[in-house]
């Protein structure tokens, strides 16, 4: 009976600690949301800037919303996603503080760099799509506009604020998540679940999967798909190189 009580006590302590970390993470996200909601308009203007640049020099361009509450909910989404982006490193620290006591010292040392690399790589992916892929994709889509003429009507883009935000956020998260590939592959290698030889032999499958993922996660244009597919393959090769240089698990034993 005493042994049963001893087992229950640590379990209860772990559950209470998990509860405390989850509440702390939620409060961090809530505070971040309050800040980002206050700055929702500048943040949205930042996200709209690539489209504004594509319209540069053209008079009368505008964005619209067709639902009564569309602009309001768009502002909430802007604030939430921005808050999630800002709060994630602090929330990840809470997760780390929960699991770290259960790890050996060498395991903590091995895992900590990946915790740091995750937000850095996500930011790199978001920056790539915002500064390079999106401007090229927007110019591609605007190429389908046409002026009106005799017997024809003009075709002109009037982007909806909600639709535009959803597309930009989808692209940023698609690139940000894709840039976590090195973290995933290296961790799987360190855990002995994926060897260097398997990664090398899987290159042909990686090419197919990379562009299939890009086709699903991006708009149906070749620019976005190539813009996501090629970085995924580059990150795949960099993961192989890193495992080689750091003496990771090379083959099944």
Notes on the protein architecture:
The protein is an all-alpha fold. The chain is built from 9 helices and no strands. It folds into 2 domains: 1-55 and 67-101, no CATH class; 103-143 and 157-248, no CATH class. 76% of the residues lie in helices and 0% in strands. The radius of gyration is 23 Å and the shape is flat.
List keywords for this structure.
single chain, 253 residues, mainly alpha, 2 domains, disordered N terminus
The largest sheet, given as strand count, sense and whether it forms a barrel, is: none
Helix percentage range: over 70%
Query: Kindly, what is the distance between the CA atoms of the first and last residues, rounded to a whole number of angstroms?
Result: 44 Å
Number of strands: 0
Low-confidence stretches: 1-7
Q: How would you classify the helix and strand content by structural class?
A: mainly alpha
Q: Give the helices and strands as they follow along the chain.
A: HHHHHHHHH
Give the C-alpha Rg. 23 Å
User: How many discrete structural domains?
Assistant: 2
Q: What percent of residues are in strands?
A: under 5%
Give the overall shape: flat
Q: What is the mean predicted local confidence, pLDDT?
A: 87
């Amino acid at each position: 009976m005493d042994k049963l009580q001893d087992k229950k006590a640590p379990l209860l302590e772990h559950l209470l600690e998990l509860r405390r970390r989850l509440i702390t993470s939620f409060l961090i996200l809530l505070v971040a949301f309050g800040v980002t909601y206050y700055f929702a308009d500048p943040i949205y203007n930042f996200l709209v800037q690539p489209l504004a640049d594509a319209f540069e020099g053209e008079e009368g361009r505008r964005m619209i919303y067709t639902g009564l509450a569309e602009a309001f909910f768009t502002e909430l989404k802007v604030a939430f996603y921005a808050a999630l982006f800002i709060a994630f490193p602090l929330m990840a620290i809470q997760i780390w503080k929960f699991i770290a006591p259960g790890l050996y010292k060498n395991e903590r040392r091995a895992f900590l760099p990946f915790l740091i690399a995750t937000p850095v790589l996500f930011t790199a992916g978001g920056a790539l799509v915002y500064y390079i892929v999106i401007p090229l994709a927007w110019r591609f889509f605007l190429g389908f506009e046409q002026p009106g003429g005799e017997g024809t009507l003009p075709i002109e883009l009037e982007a909806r604020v909600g639709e535009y935000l959803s597309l930009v956020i989808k692209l940023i998260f698609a690139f940000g998540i894709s840039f976590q590939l090195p973290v995933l592959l290296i961790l799987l290698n360190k855990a002995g679940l994926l060897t260097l030889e398997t990664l090398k032999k899987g290159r042909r499958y990686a090419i197919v999967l990379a562009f299939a993922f890009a086709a699903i996660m991006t708009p149906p244009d070749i620019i976005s798909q190539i813009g996501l597919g090629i970085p995924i393959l580059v990150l795949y090769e960099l993961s192989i190189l890193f495992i080689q240089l750091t003496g990771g698990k090379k083959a099944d034993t």
